[in-house]
């Protein structure tokens, strides 16, 4: 998205340009923020948050909510990093790897609240800019900013050094197209960033002068996509995945329903994780148990039906299609081994479904065992018929030993294949019999005008 940092004299005047003290009860020193602008709202700041978090602060906040962080006014968005990572993962699920990592660039150092992602084209441009000055360190205090971070910053407007903050879903940081740098980093990489496609706010709005520039840290990349609303929708999708009982519209609009759920969202991330990844514990699926049987909470598509059984009701607070996936349990009925499967999966013609032999499992799961004493004896021959279309043609075609072909099903070419068939067929009952041509369709015949064995004078015994 092209930058929207152009300002006119009719817009708001400069806000909060001096550092302000800010309480930091569990995080650390005061946060001084820099941000981007949009046509709808401006963020006129010249300060950036510190790139450190006090030891143990992450543990303090991991079990708390976004709303608690907002109300504490800690002046740091760093505790939201695990939740930010899930939002980025959800965006990549639906947008084909929209974001690219930047934390592996050798001479780039990320601040405590700088996410290690940017939109793909901007990430590649950043790599080029950093590579142009490999002997210098590029310090980034803000990169892609999640909708959660933008909500937190907009809630702290008027404190923590924040003059005006764009509403959630309206900042180009949320599209992964903006970075905030300390002034010394800008001075070292200014030309490299410009050559790579980044525009410095002071170049655009203040003729490159630092004095009087209202947002000295801010650089915008001009050749990406505006996806801020997709970030809002990604949060809505994560919430619905974790709370199927309290779903909200996945509209991409930051409405009152989204705001109230965001306040309740865990800073440590949702246990369910993104729709194409795992939960907050390193991507591993949540565990579950059915009695003494252990399993994983997986979608029904992910649970291998050949070797596992998906059991409903054992993964609370997860979407309906996420069930406890356990290895298919074994069972035994009257000394006969079987498997615990759903009633509809047990073939009633060959197996018997018996309740009460699969403890700790739902009632529709029963012990499925082979039926005994009801099957034909292995050596008993099947009923013998001539129902095959090619029966009585003088060739055994039912695929058994000695047959000429397997064109017929076993037992459907009886006259040609069975040992008990008549020793010979010979009559002249066909209307074309005794005309000097064999017409019964058998070996050596000229036509099939007669039934097999009914042109004996011309064809001989069959």
* Strands side by side in the biggest sheet: 8-9-11-10
How many strand elements?
Answer: 15
Query: What's the helical proportion of residues?
Result: 10-25%
Low-confidence stretches: 1-42, 278-283, 374-381, 419-423
Overall mean pLDDT:
78
CATH architecture of the largest domain: 2-Layer Sandwich
What kind of sheet is the major sheet?
4 strands, antiparallel
Shape: elongated
Share in β-strands: 5-15%
SSE string, helices as H and strands as E: HHHEEEHEHEHEHEHHEEEEEEEEHH
Please give the alpha-carbon distance between the first and last residues. 88 Å
The structural domain count equals 4
Give the C-alpha Rg: 38 Å
Going by helix content, strand content and strand pairing, the class is: alpha+beta
Give the CATH level 1 class of the largest domain: Alpha Beta
CATH topology of the largest domain: Muramoyl-pentapeptide Carboxypeptidase, domain 2
Please tally the helical runs, counting DSSP H or I stretches of 4 or more residues. 11
């Amino acid at each position: 998205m092209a930058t929207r940092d152009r300002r006119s004299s009719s817009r708001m005047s400069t806000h909060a340009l001096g550092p302000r003290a800010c309480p930091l009860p569990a995080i650390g020193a005061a946060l001084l923020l820099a941000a981007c602008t949009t046509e709808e709202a401006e963020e006129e700041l010249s300060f950036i948050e510190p790139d450190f978090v006090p030891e143990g602060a992450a543990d303090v906040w991991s079990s708390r909510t976004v709303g608690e962080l907002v109300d504490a006014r800690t002046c740091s968005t760093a505790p939201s990093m695990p939740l930010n990572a899930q939002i980025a993962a959800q965006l990549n699920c639906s947008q084909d790897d929209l974001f690219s990592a930047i934390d592996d660039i050798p001479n780039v150092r990320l601040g405590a609240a700088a996410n290690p992602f940017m939109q793909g084209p901007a990430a590649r441009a950043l790599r080029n800019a950093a590579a142009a000055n490999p002997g210098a360190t590029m310090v980034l205090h803000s990169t892609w900013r999640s909708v959660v971070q933008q909500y937190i910053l907009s809630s702290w407007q008027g404190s923590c050094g924040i003059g005006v903050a764009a509403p959630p879903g309206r900042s180009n940081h949320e599209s992964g197209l903006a970075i905030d740098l300390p002034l010394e980093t800008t001075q070292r990489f200014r030309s490299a960033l410009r050559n790579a496609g980044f525009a410095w706010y002071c170049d655009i709005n203040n003729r490159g002068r630092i004095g009087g520039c209202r947002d000295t840290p801010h650089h915008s990349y001009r050749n990406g996509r505006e996806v801020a609303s997709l970030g809002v929708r990604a949060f809505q999708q994560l919430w619905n995945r974790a709370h199927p009982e309290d779903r909200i519209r996945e509209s991409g609009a930051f409405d009152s329903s989204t705001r109230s759920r965001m306040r309740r969202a865990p800073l440590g991330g949702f246990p369910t994780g993104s729709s194409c990844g795992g939960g907050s514990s390193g991507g591993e699926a949540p565990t579950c148990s059915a009695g003494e049987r252990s399993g994983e909470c997986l979608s029904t598509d992910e649970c291998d039906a050949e070797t596992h059984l998906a059991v409903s009701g054992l993964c609370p607070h997860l979407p309906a299609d996420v069930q406890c996936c356990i290895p298919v349990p074994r069972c035994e009925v009257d000394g006969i081994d079987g498997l615990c499967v759903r009633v509809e999966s047990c073939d009633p013609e060959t197996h018997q479904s018996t309740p009460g032999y699969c403890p700790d499992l739902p009632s529709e799961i029963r012990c499925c065992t082979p039926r005994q004493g009801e099957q034909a004896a292995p050596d008993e021959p099947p009923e013998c018929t001539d129902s095959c279309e090619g029966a009585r043609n003088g060739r055994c075609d039912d695929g058994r030993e000695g047959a000429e072909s397997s064109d017929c099903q076993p037992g459907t070419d009886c006259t040609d294949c069975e040992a008990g068939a008549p020793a010979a067929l010979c009559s002249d009952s066909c209307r074309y019999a005794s005309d000097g041509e064999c017409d019964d369709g058998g070996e050596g015949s000229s036509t099939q005008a007669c039934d097999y064995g009914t042109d004996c004078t011309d064809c001989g015994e069959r």
